[in-house]
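not sure who needs this but someone in the group chat was asking about Ap4A phosphorylase II from Parascedosporium putredinis so here u go. i didnt clean anything up, its just raw.
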Amino acid sequence: MASVKAPGNLPQLVKSTFGKARANGDLLYFPTQVTVLAPTSIPKVFNPFENPDKGLLIAELAPDHNLVLNKFAVVQEHFILATKSFREQTHLLDANDLEATYACIAAYHDSVPEAEMGSDAGEGELYAFFNSGEFSGASQPHRHIQLLPVARMREGIEEGKWDVLAKRLVGEIQDLPFTVFAADIEPGMSGQALRDIYLTLYRQACASVAALLSKGDIADGAEAQTEGLARISYNMAMTRHALIVCPRLSEGGAVWDQGEAIGKVSFNGTVLAGTALVKTSAEWDALRSDPEALFNVLKTIGVPKSSRIES
């Protein structure tokens, strides 16, 4: 049975810490619009998770993790589960990483009265994702998993127009342009049970990349791997009932407008929620006017569906 327990008032704790940190200038929140569609000479990179700012610290999650606000939040109450001691972002996740992640998801769900669970507002839902490797959208080497309240992700979207893609990925989605590997998970699973599922999906992802690139050593080595450096770039996502691994071959691609490249759209683990972040209004306008352009970029970021193999 799961032994890590997140604070029972976690949603309220995240919300109050976020509000206080924003008021005090401890974090920067960039409101967004949404729509449905090391050489030794280089100075040491700042590690925001080594000694997190007190204004950003939500809570300690014994024994191995801290919950901290994302200093550069793009949705309100965006927070992070980070290991207390340095662990590599590019190495395989441990059982306690996955157990702690699910504990946060469970705490959000348990905070909402059962009578309100039928609402479409996303209250009580938490979307978790992990970026690993050069093509995954990862930006920090210290191991961390990002958590987004679904209700905050939905703000600005007309009711019923969008829901988290990962919730539907256990079944086959015919129009998804890249391969994902997904499995059901349930409340009460131990960290080791979650990790067994994660490793199975990781190995399937490695096999798909190996088949596409004709590099059998990727799959052969992954079959017995339980720790150390991941053999591929990938995103992991977790919801209350699903765990997903998506192998990655590129971070993104160019955004075109009337035959001219006007920018680039990059994807991290939020792609498994069915979202993308663009940096300029020109990119925003181009993608809204031609949704097929976004679909074309998505075709390039992972293993094409026709290359998928089962293991």
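also The helical segments are 10-24, 95-110, 150-153, 191-213, 216-223, 281-289, 291-298. if thats useful
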